[in-house]
Amino acid sequence: MLIDKPKGITSHDVIYYLRKITGIKRIGHGGTLDPNATGLLIVGVGREYTKKLGEITKNTNKEYIGKIVLGETSDTDDGEGCVLRTRETIVVNYDDIKRVILNFKGEIEQVPPSFSAIRINGKKAYQLARKGKQVQMKPRKVVIYSIQVLQYKYPNLRIKCEVSSGTYIRALARDIGAKLKTGAYLADLRRIKIGEYDIKAAVELDQLSADNWESYLK
């Protein structure tokens, strides 16, 4: 089942709701979306299809539309964190934006956000970060297959990108801000594709009920 996850709930909240309306306990998702992100969530219903989620989403490219705010940085690299710094006096022109963005196309090394679910010594990084502990995240190679500017009016920059599995768009926003010397954080994120699966084929969660959910199975 393809779900269009709304803003303000976790990916697990989606699973909890589906378990409630279907009466099926064995339901899982492939590829977590942050609570404030929206868009495509692939869900496996039942034991057989839950097991297939790994095959479907492993090493699969993903496509996103993101809104980046320039001039500020956040400790979480998104709008949920505390603003660490502002650079209100620096306004970047459109040509500089396009030039800098193109530098990220291809294989790059990316340092994941410290507020992430990556495990460090058996604990999730965000659990350590929330306790105020220093979290050293190791850079890893990711691929930005395409990246383009959809709209720009300072301080708001909207981009569309196709990336490899494991890429953090929050980290991409942070690094774009660093290159521009303004700082930046990710204010909004929408996932529109996972491999061959498109958001256009997804159903909104509030459209699903105990009476109709089976009709949305793929």
**How many helices?**
5
Number of domains: 2
Helix content bin:
10-25%
Question: What is the overall pLDDT average?
Answer: 88
Beta fraction: 35-45%
CATH class assignment of the largest domain: Alpha Beta
Distance between the termini: 6 Å
Uncertain residue ranges? 125-129
Note the run of SSEs as H and E.
EHEEHEEEHEEEHEEHEEE
CATH architecture of the largest domain: 2-Layer Sandwich
Report Rg. 18 Å
CATH topology of the largest domain: Pseudouridine synthase
Largest sheet: 10 strands, mixed
CATH superfamily of the largest domain: Pseudouridine synthase
Q: Specify the overall morphology.
A: elongated
Structural class: alpha+beta
Task: Report the count of strand segments.
Answer: 14
Summary tags:
Pseudouridine synthase; elongated; 14 strands; 218 residues; 2 domains; alpha+beta
